[in-house]
């Protein structure tokens, strides 16, 4: 029997797109951790197709790191996505980042993985920017690799906008800025930097959810995280946090189904 996948659609607004223009549809995937959704990833690919996205964005941890990393199901998914019309962009979560930055442990696995994806036409953003036009709106998409120390357990380091500014500069006010930032904990800093929409995952929805309260614990062992799953807003800036499509290490989900997200960006500009 197939696991039930929750498909959520969120609507946000921007005056950077004209009211009369068609909304931008973003399909968001995160935290697959090499999970298989039916033969050849058919269940997941069919769900993506039904959302009719203009772009597919992956917010990290699509594989599970290891000395012999689990990634073949992830490759199958990207092979399927690459056959669709929408462009596919991926940023790195802590699993991909550790493999990329620690070759003494993981060898050339990340380079092989990234090479295979790029061979399929997937854009991997390693602290890089991708620009696209949608109607009259210019969209900048940033793939941000947060320094690894911000993923340590039992740790909540202070974080300001300086690292984002050093990597990407200051966002232009007239452009719609999408930040792929795997760790959602620092949403207010992302918004302060200038991200109109941040896409995150990492927390797996809090693993176990208590109805009316929310997620219980994060991978950093922090209890009752504020940004566990769903859509959040701060002074006109938004963040969508996916509960993820897979698990690793402790494969537990209680009141917390795997999740595929669509964000519909509606224009309010004149």
- Sequence of secondary-structure elements: EEHEHEHHHEEEHEHEEEEEE
Q: How would a textbook summarize the main sheet? A: 6 strands, mixed
Report the mean per-residue pLDDT as an integer: 92
Question: Reading side by side through the largest sheet, how are the strands ordered?
Answer: 1-14-2-3-4-5
Q: From the alpha-carbon coordinates, what is the Rg to the nearest angstrom?
A: 17 Å
Shape estimate: globular
Low-confidence stretches: none
Share in helix: 10-25%
Number of helices: 7
Strand content: 25-35%
Number of strands: 14
Q: What is the CA-CA span between the terminal residues?
A: 49 Å
Structural class: alpha/beta
Q: How is this structure best described in words?
A:
The chain is of the alpha/beta class. 21% of the residues lie in helices and 30% in strands. The chain has helices at residues 42-51, 72-82, 94-101, 103-106, 109-119, 162-168, 187-193, and strands spanning 6-18, 24-29, 55-58, 88-91, 123-125, 128-134, 137-144, 176-181, 197-200, 209-210, 214-215, 230-234, 237-241, 259-269. The strands form three sheets. The chain has a six-stranded mixed beta sheet. It is globular, with a radius of gyration of 17 Å. The mean pLDDT is 92.
């Amino acid at each position: 029997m197939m696991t039930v996948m929750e498909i959520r659609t969120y609507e946000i607004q921007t005056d950077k797109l004209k009211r009369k223009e068609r909304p931008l549809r973003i399909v968001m995937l995160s935290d697959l951790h090499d999970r298989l959704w039916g033969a050849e990833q058919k269940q997941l690919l069919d769900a993506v197709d039904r959302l009719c996205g203009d772009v597919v964005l992956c917010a990290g941890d699509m594989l599970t790191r290891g000395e012999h990393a689990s990634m073949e199901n992830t490759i199958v998914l990207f092979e399927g996505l690459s056959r669709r019309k929408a462009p596919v962009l991926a940023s790195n979560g802590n699993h991909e980042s550790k493999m990329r930055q620690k070759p003494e442990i993981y060898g050339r696995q990340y380079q092989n993985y990234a090479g295979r994806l790029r061979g399929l036409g997937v854009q991997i953003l390693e602290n890089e920017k991708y620009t696209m036009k949608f109607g009259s709106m210019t969209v900048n998409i940033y793939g941000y690799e947060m320094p690894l120390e911000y993923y340590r357990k039992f740790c909540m380091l202070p974080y300001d906008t300086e690292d984002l500014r050093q990597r990407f500069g200051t966002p232009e006010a007239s452009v719609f800025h999408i930040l792929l930032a795997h760790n959602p904990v620092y949403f207010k800093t992302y918004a302060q930097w200038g991200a109109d929409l941040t896409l995150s995952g990492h927390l797996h929805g809090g693993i176990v959810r208590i109805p009316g309260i929310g997620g219980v614990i994060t991978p950093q062992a922090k209890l009752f995280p504020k940004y566990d799953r769903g859509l959040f807003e701060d002074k006109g800036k938004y963040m969508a946090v996916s509960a993820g499509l897979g698990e690793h290490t402790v494969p537990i989900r209680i009141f917390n189904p795997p999740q595929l997200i669509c964000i519909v960006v509606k224009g309010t500009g004149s």
